[in-house]
Amino acid sequence: MRCPKCLLCLSALLTLLGLKVYIEWTAESRLSKAYPGPRGTPPGPTPSSPEPTLPANLSARLGQTGPLPSAYWNMQQWRLGALPSGDSAEAGDCRAWGAAAAAEIPDFASYPEDLRRFLLSAACRSFPRWLPEGGSGQVASCTDMDVPYLLLAVKSEPGRFAERQAVRETWGGPAPGIRLLFLLGSPAGDRGPDLGSLVAWESHRYSDLLLWDFLDVPFNQTLKDLLLLAWLDRHCPGVSFVLQAQDDAFVHTPALLDHLRALPPSWARGLYLGEVFTQAKPLRKPGGPFYVPGSFFEGGYPAYASGGGYVIAGRLAPWLLQAAARVAPFPFDDVYTGLCFRALGLVPRAHKGFLTAWPADRTADPCALRDLLLVRPLGPQDSIQLWKQLWDPQLQC
Ligand SMILES: *[C@@H]1O[C@H](CO)[C@@H](O)[C@H](O)[C@H]1NC(C)=O
Ligand SMILES: *[C@@H]1O[C@H](CO)[C@@H](O)[C@H](O)[C@H]1NC(C)=O
């Protein structure tokens, strides 16, 4: 050690330089995809820690610090939140949970039919896979040699063949590090035509359909999230990121990949990224969409990412499953995901490039899309056209 001071100076200089590079790099990754559109989202709260935790008593985390609430969901959560970790809502007969809800909610009979149906079966969360006869069209597990960087998990419905095909031919097409899967309920006719044989053919042809044996209706969409998480845990535990999207979304996949690759590791580890709603409240207009009766739920929604499309870190899959065992069933899948993240102590990150209620007059404009990551809704034809235009070398913006 001939010059300890020089060494000290040198290391201090290097640290400063590193810091500068890091700050510039994160600032750029935050700003470059910003879209100065009319529907900007307010930034979510800053997370205190990127690491998920699940305390024995969830009440404070879920904002329940007062006396026993009277709305049914809040009451259930108050009890469930205080259980020792590991106990789950599904212990015993899941139908009993629904029967109890029907008996204990005073105005249950006046609830909309789909909400009543939801509550009666809400605690039933394990369903077998729906497999076409002969068992062909199995979705392959990820292998050590082939762990996707980004899994595109697209919620579809059996009859939406054109929407799925458009995704395959555009933003969900084969690319390094990308894997595409569609999540569906049963195609067997219950309320509509029996699509079993058509879906079986599609499944055999593309091997990208994860089907389960439950009725594919809006209030059953949380089942797709939970069953996907369980599938990931078993068949694809190494995936870095999972995009959860609707089949009418349009994803600018290369831009999304760039964004994810540029994230600081500490953000990436607890990622929950999308168009974030921080002040949403239940709608109380009976007969309207997303109506939630006051006797079922009181208070505001947690900050959550719009279900039209959001990205989570793959490593959170087992955590979210554990959280879901301790968060009472709620009919809207994206709000429910927000509740589970909140239970884990993680908050969503807003990105202005996610526009899940994109104005229809913009769909034709590839230039508007160049700086965005995900928009919806778009029909299959519009998606195909937009994808072509995006890749057109003549495109002038
Ligand atoms: C859980 O936490 C809430 C709020 O901090 C508290 O009121 C309640 O008594 C706790 N429950 C148990 C079983 O410890
Ligand atoms: C969800 O699927 C299950 C199983 O098919 C069914 O019993 C339940 O009624 C469905 N939920 C709704 C809201 O229709």
Could you write a compact summary of the structure shown?
With 397 residues, this protein is α/β, with parallel strands linked by helices.
List the helices and strands and how they pair.
Elements: H1 4-31, H2 72-81, H3 94-104, H4 113-121, E1 150-155, H5 161-169, E2 178-184, H6 196-206, E3 209-211, H7 221-235, E4 241-246, E5 250-251, H8 253-261, H9 265-269, E6 272-277, E7 304-313, H10 317-324, H11 333-343, E8 349-350, E9 354-355, H12 366-369, E10 374-375, H13 380-390
Parallel strand pairs: 1-2, 1-4, 2-3, 6-8, 9-10
Antiparallel strand pairs: 4-7, 5-10, 6-7
One 2-acetamido-2-deoxy-beta-D-glucopyranose is lined by residues 114, 117-118, 121, 214-215, 217, 219-220.
Characterise the protein shown here:
It is globular, with a radius of gyration of 23 Å. α3 crosses α4, α5 packs parallel to α13 (380-390) and α7 (221-235) packs across α11 (333-343). The strands form two sheets. The chain has a seven-stranded mixed beta sheet. The protein has 13 helices and ten strands. It has a domain at 133-390: Spore Coat Polysaccharide Biosynthesis Protein SpsA, Chain A (Alpha-Beta Complex). Helix content is 36%, strand content 12%. It is an alpha/beta fold. β9, α12 (366-369) and β10 form a beta-alpha-beta unit. Residues 114, 117-118, 121, 214-215, 217, 219-220 line the site of one 2-acetamido-2-deoxy-beta-D-glucopyranose. It is an enzyme of class 2 (transferase). It comes from Ceratotherium simum simum.
